[in-house]
Design brief:
By secondary structure, the protein is mainly α. It is built from four helices and no strands. It has one domain. The longest helix has 38 residues.
């Protein structure tokens, strides 16, 4: 298994664990029904911002730990260059991620047009971000395994 495959697997697993763990942490803090709209918006705003911050910091730490463990177990350094194949795979992963996020964003805005509750829009946006992140890792893994 190549470095890129291992990194994609670690990224995929860490993304899923971070998201699930954070959702279990934030779920009990959801405001009760009948609370003011400003309190509900504060909850969802802090949910999204803190999730982004936690996710970025956790991914940086996991990447550092992964590189240390990879170097200790294999004796190899992280590849210092990217060839044309790596760039094509990266672009395809980004395209898949962006497409899923845009579709989720459009569904979230459509939920507002169809007069769904506000939490539906936020759930769709958060789910779209999560699926976009996961799809990027899966796309990379797929293309490194199967080729272009």
């Amino acid at each position: 298994m190549t470095y890129q495959e291992k990194k994609s697997i670690v990224t995929l697993i860490s993304t899923i664990l971070i998201f699930i763990g954070y959702c279990f942490y934030m779920y009990p803090k959801y405001p009760e029904q009948g609370t003011a709209l400003s309190e509900v918006l504060h909850y969802w705003g802090s949910f999204v911002l803190i999730l982004m911050l936690v996710s970025i910091i956790a991914h940086i730490m996991i990447s550092i730990v992964f590189n240390i463990i990879y170097r200790m177990t294999t004796g190899e350094k992280e590849p210092g260059f990217t060839d044309e194949l790596d760039r094509i795979i990266e672009l395809r992963a980004h395209r898949t991620s962006f497409l899923l996020f845009i579709l989720g964003f459009l569904c979230a805005m459509g939920s507002l047009v169809m007069e769904q509750p506000l939490y539906v829009m936020f759930n769709l946006l958060i789910a779209a971000g999560f699926l976009a992140d996961v799809s990027g890792s899966v796309t990379k893994l797929y293309h490194y395994r199967r080729g272009i």
